[in-house]
């Protein structure tokens, strides 16, 4: 059971539809989780390397230029702007840096809770 104090700390200062929009893509969820682990701004380039490493199941130092570029373009042309538009992050298009907003940590906490609560059910082979 969730008590009132923990529910209040998870209040997200945005419309529910905007929150669901922010969380509807795995790259946007990874941006929010990355930002929630730092108090500094993060460059789109650093986010691209981190996300490409996760998506490719490898160490960030082993990410190829093509893998990084694919994620970078996706982030800068779509996902970071979307997160900024809904108020989930503060994205500076000129410097290509991303900073947290009041909504970042509560959204990230919901992501962490869902990741913990959800599981992929075993499927039984049909014979």
From TrEMBL:
* Species name: Halorubrum vacuolatum (Natronobacterium vacuolatum)
The family database entries (Pfam families) matched by this protein are listed as: DUF7344 (PF24035)
For the DUF7344 domain, which residue ranges apply? 20-98
Instruction: Tell me the domain of life.
Output: Archaea
Q: Which InterPro entries match?
A: DUF7344, WH-like_DNA-bd_sf
The name under which this protein is listed is: DUF7344 domain-containing protein
